[in-house]
């Protein structure tokens, strides 16, 4: 008993070391969204390409939706762009999954130019110049991607760029699950 | 006296720097409807955390999202929303994370009571150690042999002092 007590401080220090060491490799930006499990917030904004066309929440519901927050001022969005094109052109996903853009606090002309230059992976992009929808979604940077199910409920929020590895690890299992949920009519 | 003067001067310098850092935080040109709203705005922007630059509050941060949230905070307060409503608004969007003073919940009990618990454990350990000390003295008690010797030494000493002569004098006599 006495021996154990003698080594207790050492054991505690080692345990603390393990905990702190683990903390070093955690990503502090990786926070669960407060909106997961809640319905998509209501909004009424114009599309990027047409300042006279208003879109609302109803335009997004019905399919499994990937809502990608992007902007021309965001270098990581440029890195992510080819992977988004891949997703949009994926024949297996196309019948079920629709990719929409949320152009966040950007300049309309610059954003339109970006999409002609790098091709447009989105069904359409919502133009959120003031960041109001971004605020309601708890967006704090770009890129961010939300997965919304066919009932309009937010199922996932991912902050950071999507690439092949991230897609396989973070998105593919959830998308498969959502497709089967939809097919079973849940 | 000199020490006191020095101390006061140092404190003055420290205060000067402290007020300077407050001045260095981003300046918004909000016009508040009354003084109370202004104070509430300042208090809330210090207590709400910037989601992007995670170790700064809204008042400190220069990031665009913090500026947006300050503007939103300003508008909510101008609309006459209560502090609790403003906090709910932020938590609904950015999660419990934005609160520098987290609310009581199953997840945050350890944050609130952990430090008190640790102090309590510390106090208990200290008390246990202090209580143990007298007990360990018993192990140091003299054996009978040592006690006999001690008595003898004391007796010798007593004899010498009754002889009203110092050790030095005795040595001289010898």
Short description:
The complex is a heterodimer of chains A (186) and B (174). With 186 residues, chain A is of the alpha/beta class.
Folded structure, characterized:
The complex is a heterodimer of chains A (186) and B (174). Chain A has helices at residues 2-24, 75-89, 108-118, 132-136, 164-183; strands at 44-46, 54-56, 64-70, 97-104, 125-128, 144-148, 154-159. With 186 residues, chain A is α/β, with parallel strands linked by helices. The longest helix of chain A is centred in the N-terminal third of the chain and has 23 residues, at 2-24. With 174 residues, chain B is mostly helical. The radius of gyration of chain B is 35 Å and the shape is elongated. The chains are: A alpha/beta (186), B mainly alpha (174). The A-B interface holds A 28-29, 31-35, 105, 131, 135-138, 140-141 and B 51-52, 54, 64-65, 68-69, 72, 91-97.
List the helices and strands and how they pair.
The complex is a heterodimer of chains A (186) and B (174).
Chain A: H1 2-24, E1 44-46, E2 54-56, E3 64-70, H2 75-89, E4 97-104, H3 108-118, E5 125-128, H4 132-136, E6 144-148, E7 154-159, H5 164-183
Parallel strand pairs in A: 3-4, 4-5
Antiparallel strand pairs in A: 1-2, 3-6, 6-7
Chain B: H1 2-24, H2 35-47, H3 64-78, H4 83-94, H5 109-137, H6 144-162, H7 167-173
Helix pairs in contact in B: 2-3
SS field, number of helical segments of chain B = 7
Q: Label the CATH architecture of chain A.
A: 3-Layer(aba) Sandwich
Helical residues, percent of chain B: 55-70%
The count of helical stretches of chain A stands at 5
**In the CATH classification, which architecture of the largest domain in chain B applies?**
Orthogonal Bundle
Distance from N terminus to C terminus of chain B (CA atoms, Å) equals: 59 Å
Number of strands of chain A: 7
Shape summary of chain A: elongated
CATH topology name of chain A: Glutaredoxin
| Average pLDDT for all residues of chain B | 80
The class by helix and strand makeup of chain A works out as: alpha/beta
Superfamily (CATH H level) name of the largest domain in chain B:
Cytochrome C biogenesis protein
The helix-and-strand class of chain B reads mainly alpha
- Give the beta-strand count of chain B: 0
Oligomer: heterodimer
Number of folding domains of chain B?
A: 3
Name the pair of protein chains with the most residues at their interface, and give those residue counts. Answer: A-B, 15 and 15 residues
The largest pleated sheet of chain B is described as: none
**General shape of chain B:** elongated
β-strand percent of chain B reads under 5%
